[in-house]
Write a structure and sequence with these properties.
By secondary structure, this protein is mainly α. Helices cover about 60% and strands about 0% of the residues.
Length: about 50
């Protein structure tokens, strides 16, 4: 492959923008989850009887 064929690059613009937006949304969700998990106090790690 010898680089990008810029004649066809415009057709990919919308898909690239969607991918970036989806990646940003995913990153925000992961960061939100990590913040929630790190703010929780750990629970007992004992295994319930009969498990």
């Amino acid at each position: 492959m010898n680089g990008i064929d810029w004649r066809n690059a415009e057709q990919w613009a919308a898909q690239i923008e969607e991918a970036i937006a989806a990646g940003t949304t995913f990153t925000q969700a992961v960061n939100h989850s990590l913040k929630a998990l790190t703010s929780c106090k750990p629970a007992s790690s004992s295994i319930p009887e009969g498990f």
